[in-house]
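SEVERITY: medium
COMPONENT: batch folding queue
REPORTER: lab tech (J.R.)

DESCRIPTION
The queue accepted two submissions in a row. Attaching both inputs and their returned structure tokens so the on-call engineer can compare them side by side.

ATTACHMENT 1
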Amino acid sequence: MIEIVPARELVAVSGESVPVPDPDRLVHLQFRRFAGCPVCNLHLHSIARRHAEITAAGVREVVIFHSSADELRPHIDGLPFAVIPDPAKRLYAEFGVESAPRALLDPRVWPVIIAAVFRALRTGQPAPPRPEGGRLGLPADFLIGPDGRVPAVRYGKHAGDQWTVDELLALVYRDGLLDGVQ
């Protein structure tokens, strides 16, 4: 597990330069699967709906996909946070984020997959037939302080295993992770 994240600038699909760590606030660095992943889209829209609460808590959302910027562009309209392409999975390797068959085979993800597929059908955004990087990616969440320290991590056990907004905010407020953040 990574304990300190060296300073770097990531480039979002929008072209925005994104500092990680951010010198002024916590970063919630999310590793998701592929562009158009229905499970990821369902989760990210829950984050987008509560983005103002997350920002008010002193947290910057940064989301990484193992897809190219071209693959991601059709899927990021309306997302109020930085989306980073990593088709070579360099950041995935650095942070120890894996792929495994349990991403889809774990029975705990099946209800999430059903809900995500129905949402994808309703919105006209079905999953791509052959996603870059494959379908077996596992999610991961990292909370990174302005000094680069990582006080909280979650490596997903299946495709739908990531922090909810409530879990993220509980970490920030209950565990006092805002101490020392402007």
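ATTACHMENT 2
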Amino acid sequence: MPTALITGASRGLGRALADALADRGWRLVIDARGADALEAARAALAGRAEVVALAGDVADDGHRAALVEACGGELDALVNNASILGPSPLPALDELPLPALADVLQTNAVAPLGLVQRALPLLGEGGRVVNITSDAAVEPYPGWGGYGAAKAALEQLTRVLAEERSELRVYAYDPGDMRTQMHQDAFPGEDISDRPPPEDSVPGLLRLLEGDLPSGRYTAGDAA
């Protein structure tokens, strides 16, 4: 059975993807920072798939090493989904604390590359790397400067990796607006019930993981 490593899989898009892959016979290695929520996800998945769940922060290289080790020497797909928003409410750039920007860059760009570096020896011909990005990487939304800059950096890393490792399929995937906790944090106190659930963005991810699309940047609509 194929093996996928999914970060940030206790809720939102990561959890929705893990649910879908469990139903399709994948073996899963999942992580999240919240141990209780991650254990709840693992328990829900365990009846349908082989699941290893490790709580921790992807910004910690020791945790990244443990995740790759948990794959047991086999890995077909790495999905870098774990991400942080930064300060909420979202500040303008002239008020963005630089330590907060450093944290966002560390989690949203540096950590995914660190996990890729550790996972590369396990990814054979045709292995998949999917880095979850955002339209904030390409559009200048006020307040989204820190998060968008980190996702723009992640997209450039994705493009270069695709050029350097042509034996792999390397994707940046923009799932679009979703009704998630992160999106709620971006708009505190607002009603975001009109946003689609993260499950609506999963079909595009499945196409990247199981289809034959070339490396590149895809939105949920493009991929599906």
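NOTES FROM REPORTER
Strands lie at 3-6, 27-32, 51-55, 75-80, 123-132, 169-174, 216-219.
No errors were logged for either attachment.
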